[in-house]
Structures are given as C-alpha cells and as structure tokens.
Here is the input.
Amino acid sequence: MSSIKKQPQQRAALLQGTLDMLILRTLLYGPAHGHQIGKHIQRTTNDFLQMQHGSLYPALHRLERRGWVVSKWETAPDRNREFKYYRLTDQGKKQLVIEESQWKQMAEAVARVMWPTAEEA
Amino acid sequence: MRWWQLKKRHADLERELQSDLELEEEEQRENGLSPEEARQAALRALGNTVLIKEQAHEAWGWAQCERLWQDVRYAVRQLLRSPGFSLTALLTLTMAIGANVIVFGVANDLLFNPLPVPQPKQVYSLQGKHTMGIAFSWPDYQDIRDRAQAFSGIALMRLTMAGLSTGQKAVPVWGYEVSSNYFQTLGVQPALGRFFTPSKEVKINGVPDAVLSYDCWQTQFNGDRDIIGKTVRINKIPFTVIGVAPRGFYGTERLIWSKIWLPIEDEPEIEGYNWIQYRGNQNGWLVGRLKPGVTAAQADADLANVAASMARQYPDSDKNLSIGVAQPGLFGNMIGAPVRAFVTGIMLMAFLVLLAACANLAGFFTARMTDRAREMGIRIAIGASRLRLMRQLLTESILIAVAGGIAASLLALLTLRVLSAWRPSIDFPFELVLNPGAKVYLFASALALVTGLIFGLLPARQIWRTDPNRTLKSGMANPGSRRFPVRDILLTVQIALCCLLVTSSFVALRGMMRTLNLHLGVDPQNTTLASLDLALAGYPSKSAAAAQQRMLDAVRQIPGIESASLSNSVPLSINQSTTSIFAPGTTAFNASAVKFRANYYEIVPGYFHTAGTRLLRGRDFTVDDNDKSPSVAIINETLAKQLFGTADAVGKRFPTDTNQFTRIVGVVEDGKYATFTEDPTAALFWPLAQSPDTTTVLLVRSPRPPAEMIPAVRRAISDVDPAVPILSVDTWPHAMSFFLLPQRAATVALGVLGAFAMMLALTGIFGLASYTVSRRMREFGVRIALGARHWNVLRSALGRIFVLLTAGAVAGLALGFAGSRIIAGIVYKASAFDPLVIVAVALTMVGIGLLAAFGPARRALAAEPARLLRED
Here is the structure.
C-alpha cells in the first residue's frame, strides 16, 4: 500500500524543485494565469515537459504563500471573462536569480562528471 | 493567510480550476474533438482534482493545526461516548494530581521558599553541633561574633512576648529582642524610617527604640504614615518607633511571624530580670551571614575552632560548647530535620499514588484499545500511518490529563486557601501562608502532561503490533503472546502501592493510638486552662503575686467547679523551662558541676490535686511555704532516682548555690513534660511564693461544659484586672493537641492517601476482572454446559487476578516494613512489626479483592450456556 503512494511523490518531488523555478521564469515575461503558464512551459519545451496542469496549482499556491508571487482575479484583455492572474514580486525576482545560479552550478557539476575535458580525465 | 479564510480559498481554487477546465475544453474542441471527448480530454489534462485540492490545502500551511483540531474533536466525541469511563478517569486523575499539588504547595512554603532576606542562601542558623541546644548566652554570643572568621555578621535574637499598647489596653504580640546588628546582618532595608544602629557597646535599658513589622504597622496602627517617632508602650514602658520592616519580612523562623523588634539591651526591663550578663543563661538564637565565597563546611570548621577556644577560656560555663551551622527557618535542626523527612516522605507517597493512578488508567485505556482493535485495523488498512493513529490516541489521554490537571489545580487552590486560614488554637504566631504561586501551577501542568503521556503511551504501543489482516478477520487484537502481559504487571504494581500506603496508614494509626494511651502524669480531662503574663500589663514580679492570688480567688468563686489552681506553666505546653541540678556535696556551682537538668514549675498549694498528678510520698506545699520559710521543693520520681538513687527522697536536701539548700517535702509520679515522645525526665516543683513569676496559668477543673467554663474564667480574670491581656483560654486537651499536631497531620495525610490508594486498587481489580469475564463469557458458558462446578468457573476466571493480588500485597507489605522507619520518626512508637497491623492489612487487601471481584464473579456464574453459544 505504501509503496504505491511513494512513486508519484518521488516524481513530484523531482519536478517540484525545478517547477518553481520554471514558473517564476515564465512570470518574468509578465502576468499570466495558470492555464497560460502550463501551456507556455509545454510549448517552449516542445512538449517534453508534459505535466498535468493540476500540479501547477499547488505549486502556484505555494509560491504565493512564500511571497514570491501575488495573485488577483482580473478580466482577460481579449475576452469577457475573469482569470486569476499571477505576478512576480520583487522577492520572487530575487529568488529566481538564486535558483537560476543554483541550477547552473548543478548543471556544470553534472557536466564535469559526465563529459570530463581532456585535462581532467 | 488566516485560517478563517480557508473556506474562501477553497471556493477560489474551485473557480480557478473550473476556468482552467473550460479553457482546456475550448482548445480541445478547436482541435476537432467532439464536446464530449473534449471534456474528457480536458479532465485528463487537468489531472486528479482531489489531489490538487489536497496539495493546495497543504500549501496553505494550516493543515497541521487542522489535523490536531480534528484529533481533539474526535477524542472529545470518543470520551463523551463512554461517560462513565471518562468521568472515573477524570476523577482519579484530579485527585491524584491534586494531592501532589497540595503537598508540593505545603512543601514549597515550609521548605523551599527562600527566607525574606537578600541572598538568603548565605544566611544560616548557628546551633550546638553535638547537643540538641539551639540557644546561646549573650556573653557567649559576643565572643562567637568577635572570633568567628567565616561570617560577615552574626546576630542574636530572643523570642519574646510583649504587651504592646498605645492607649489603655495592652495587646499581646510576639516579637524578637535582637542585637543591634540584626538588620544589618540580614541585609533588609526599612520600609519606613530606619533600623537599629549597629554598635558593640551595650547600654543596658538605654535604647528605647522599636521596629514594627509591616503587618503590625498596617493592622495595629492603620498604616499611619507618621508612625516614626511616635511613642508606644511595651509592657507599660515607653519606646519610640524608629522604623517599619519591609513588607513580607517576618524574621528568620518560618513558623514565627514577628510583629516587633526590640533591642536586646532593654531585655532586663522587658522581661523583668537580667539574663544577658550571665554566660550560663542560654536564651538567644544566633543567625549569621556567611562572607561571600565561604562555604558552609568552612563555616562549620571555623565555628568548631571558636568553640574550642571558648571552652579553653571559660571552662566553667563553656566546657561542652559546640557550634555549627544549620539550615535556618525551622529552628535549625531541631524540627527542621524531622519536618523535612516527613514532607519528603509524604511527597514520595503522593507521587506513588499518582503512579498507581497512571497504572490504573493505563490499564483502562489498554482495555479500550483492544475493544477498538477492529477500528484500528480498518484505519491502518486504508492507509493511515501508525504515527497518526498514535497521535490521535495520545490526544485522548492528554485531553483527559489536561482536564484533570485543571480540576486538580482548582481543588488544590481551594484546599491550600482553607489550610492557610486554619490557626491552631494556641498562642503562637504561627502563620501558614500558603500562596500557591506560579511555581505550583507550573508543577501541576507539568505533572498533568507527563501523566497523560505515561498512561497514553502504554496502550498506544499496541497499535504498532496490530496486524490489520488478523484484526479484520477475527475482530480481536493480537492474542497476548507474553507470559506476563502488561496489564497484569500494571495491576500488580497498583496493588503493591496500595498495600504500601495501607500499611503505612495502619502503622501511623496504631502509633497514634499508643500515643494517646501514654501515661501523661496529669489528667487533662474536664480542665480549662487560662494563660496570661502579668508582665505584659506592667506588673513587676513582686506585686504580681497579689494579683495572681486575687485571680485565683475569683476563679474559685465560679459556681460548679471542683478545684482551681495556679502555676507558671503546665506540662506539654509551649512554655517549658529547665534548671540545673547539682548533686549534694557540690562546692563550685558552675557549668561543669551540673549533674543534669530538670524541667521546673512554680506552683501554688493544691496544684497537684487540680492537675491530677499523684503524690507518691510526703506532702504538697502549704501556705506556710513562703518567702520567709526555708526553701522547699517537690520532685518527681525520676529526679529522686537520678539524684539520690531512690524514690524515697522526702526530707533529703540538695544544694542550689553556695550554702543554699532546698529540702524535699514530696515526691510525685513521673509524667511527660516537653514532648509526648520523651524518655522519663526529671521534674522539679517550686512553691510560687518562694519563686515568684509573672507568667501565669490558671487551671480550673469542672464537670461543666467548656462552652460555659471558658467565658466564666475570662470574666473572672477581667473582673480582677481588665487591662491584663489574656493569652488564651482553652480546654487542656485541646491546648495539648498542638503537640500531637505532627502525628495527627501524618496520620491524616497517610490515611487520606491510603484510602485513595484503596479506591484505585478497587477500581483496578474491578476493571480487570470484569473485562476478563466479559471477554471469556462464551468459555464460561461452555464450561458450565459441560458440568463445571461454580468453584471451577470462579477459579479459572479470577484465579490469576487473586494471584496478582497476593503478589502485590506481599510486595507492598515488605515495602511498608521498610518505610515504617520514616513514619516512626514522626509518629511515636510506630512500627510495622505489630501483629495487629499485619492482620489489619491482610484483611483489608482480602476485603478489597473480594469486593472488587464480587460483581464480575456473579456475572461469570450467571453465564447461560445456551444463550451464549447461540450468540456470536
């Protein structure tokens, strides 16, 4: 019983860390609502990062609680409907920079192990 | 995010998800799917909405609190469903925790509260190290003060009663005569005015200054702001108030709340005779403050040196001098040690009762746990973590514990208030100010929490071993795989504790009974005592005799009395004095020649008849034994034997000073004089006419009820002189009862704890027995159907329980033997090796067992095989 529960948790945990960063990056362009963020990530990664929209929302709410984004119900510019738009805060911008540099460091470290240059070999 | 907005949040999220769904649907339809398929695709794309909502809920951060609140509500519901169980558990805990809190409150006040002085840990009493004496003389004090190196200051204080008056009537107050450095040594600051000026000079009767206590200032003088400089009369002598002590300062003895402080230099005029110039008159208590950095052990060594040097210098009076330090507050070690031992013992007992209650409750909760085994199995099966289940169970037990703690605090508060207001009816300034401070409540809360955890964790253990598979199939918890299941051990522990407490109670009771049957040497029944001190009304010793005679005559006029008499003091009262006895043939009358000390009383003729003391030989005093006739005395048998080797001492003489002899005219029976538990002591009686004293006790023997006698005696005394303050009028047995106080208190405390432990044992056995019986009803049905006799059924049902009962009782009795030593320190002649005690304990335990098992036994026997075998 318990082992079945663990798998999606593990996958979600892996994605969770980077998901926050991706959302923050997406919002750097400007405010967007949940659906748009999901579609954007899907499009820009050429459907590689396919995730269920559902996992976005908890992440968004978590980010809001941390104070990195703020949300507001606004009317969409092109339609006559209201959507909940998320915006990046100043703190969020700082956090994005931090997470970006962390990601870069990790990527570099992994790259050095995977593809060592001639001197390190 | 505030928790009351959670509902709004949920609605918000719902709306958000809804709009996402619609957008997705639109896009899918644009891709060419039918509305139905578009909807399905949209739902798939979104994912598990329930999971989303749950995760979002977690993200909002209040989930933990919500779960806790859920647990609490569920626990409350569960507890309300079985009100009988919950109420019993609550009551048990309230009383167990309450007892501990009350005992702690008393102990806190008597033992732990620091003295009302700055840096109280540096202040010590100085006492005789190898002797029981706690008093020193003034010249000795001066030498100790000057020679001791370890103290920054040593002060002397002498408890005294004084008549304080501003107008006509004198009010008796307790106070201290102190050395001039008393306040400086203790380090207190005056609330008003100033204190005595420290000085090594002693101007006899030359310092008419007085310091009032804060309480005295408020009550006697209404907090008069201009009190400084006002004149008050102490024993009719004018004194000037120079200062008021700070609020809450009562001196250094916990049991005596002093109202006034006077300079020791004025002692001769206050007390009527000069004792401060004599090295042999030991009347003062010493208190000292250690120098910073000096330890008590170093002070002890220093004082030993001082004592040795003084013994060398003054061999006559200080030959056997020994000094050491002692914890201040309870007359040093005189009553400090037994009081501490007693209070510690009681605290331990109360804690044992708490443990027993925990064991009791743990047993109950465990039983409930097995009843809910199926529920637990289901919960684990559908995915609850064991930790979560344990937490929920602990919530239940902690909830009951907290409720019990609150109820216990209230109970303790009430009890301590009642105890505070209680005054023993003696003329002693004894104030038990029990203010349960924050410390006590903290103690109660901590105790409650710990208790809840203890008896909650035990049954919670069972959850770890629950296998959902088996419980769902059989509906029962894991069958006990151990030889001694925890419940049995718990019950045995409970029984042992109960038996221990019951044994202690019986031991104390038996000791009390023996004490009451002691030979006292007087017959206090039907006698009223009135004690007063004429010195407080300003009578010098010489004219006091006339007033005393007038009062005696007045009292003898009261109708319906058998006899009345007068003395300076009676046995077994606060005011006991001793004198030195020198053997016949003594030439040098100093401290080293003292053969032994004897209690002495100054009496009028007829005293023995009124007091009920038997005259063994010779005669009583007569009116002819006065200050013009030769010195005579009456002694008791012990003194006669100690001095002359035989009880036949009438006509013999003994010396009191150079060329001064006293002739013995009578010998009376022995009795108890200072305490109930003393060994036979020597006693000496002087005729009051030859040895006048202003302290007076009137004895009035009459068959009339005390309600009539007490006011009649008061009136008679007031008719003679209304200005004399009467210290107390009481029946003799009641006045004596103060001396029985420690034993009474011990017996009552042990009795209450014992009764409570019995109750716990009763409920424990009853719980286990009825539980066992109800689980095995089918088995009994089968047995009876197969022809088992009543005895067989009972043996199989309750046999184990009675084995546990016996084991526990034996263990408890053994512990009781060991513990009876502590009780013997307080209760005279208390010993567990008394066949009566053992029989009583055995009967009690058997009685408890039978009473508790009666109900379940009947149920077991009433098992109807036919019906039970049909049921599931």
